[in-house]
Amino acid sequence: MSKSLAHSTSPPSSGLLMEVETKVPFEIYFGGPDRPSGYLRDVLAAHIAAVPAGGAIDWVTYYFRDMRLAEALVQAHRRGVKVTVTLEGKPRIPYANDEVIALLSRPEGLGKALRIIRIPGIPAPAGKSWKPQLHEKLYCFSHPAPIAFVGSFNPSGNMPDENPEIIRELGDQDRGHNVLVGLVDPMVVAQLTAHARCLHRVPPGLLHRFSARANQTICGKDATIYFWPRIHPHPVVQFLMSVRPGARVRVVASHIRAERAVEVMIALAQRGMTVQVLAESTLRRVTAKVEKRSSAANVQFFRFQDPESLPMHLKFVLVEDGDHVFTIFGSFNWTKPSFWLNHEIAVISSNRGLFRAFAARWEVLKNQINPKAADSLKCVD
Q: Euclidean distance between the first and final Cα of the chain, in Å?
């Protein structure tokens, strides 16, 4: 198992970002207030610029508002790069993607290389909406070496942003906490690229979860990638239920609303594990009921508090089980739509370098909770 990890701490500059280490299994970039504004969108911009004519760029994302990135994709298309963009057509803020869609869908834009996904909803009681959404974040590049980025980051900012209402609703994701992890194993990148192209070519329908494609598992050297909705059990929950008593489980979550999610975390604590949850501050994304139930059941529950009210959009889990460590990350939330309806992607990795990088990010986040709560975390860190 490789222990090296490319971990960039300097801001992107012109051209492709170059890492210090070589022959690494991952590239990892954390955005946040300790990074320059737009750090992660600049990572994507640098990779777009590095793909030559004859290469390929394949994107799947939920929100896309960054007009400069959209223009960069159009320019890549014009210089002979094969570009596909697959985008949710009606996200939670339905009009958020409209400006980018208008740009990319023009004949002089990407034309048919843009695919807007609107998955039919399931009949629901009055006042409810059971509509699957394309919530994956996947950015694949063929050159200068194949890489596929998975994580929590949508290019949902548009500096300078002329729509403050959307930013108030979404939060400033160009300055808030997010992550992009680049997988570089050529076999894994090829399969993730095939997944992105398949979504573009054949949009999923209501019966997608029963297909072989939905239940596919991509196995790399020290990372396994899962997609859902699927007919098999939720892969993250299934993995956590296999962890042994005495383990330490740290959950960083931007959204926790599902009763099932709380039950999973309580069950882990009841089996003798140390369970720590660091959640987003907003009650819409992480409800007061979730916090109350978790805290009452011996789950150590803390809320991230940024002095500028920047969002904490990360979704990852750290597991220490005896001599083994695991990192789980991706697009998934701990909500009913994410559990049962949305199209999500998750990576479970045993790579120790990756674990160290995410554990270091835990420390950064931990410093932005109230001092008493931070002290209670120190006793087990």
A: 25
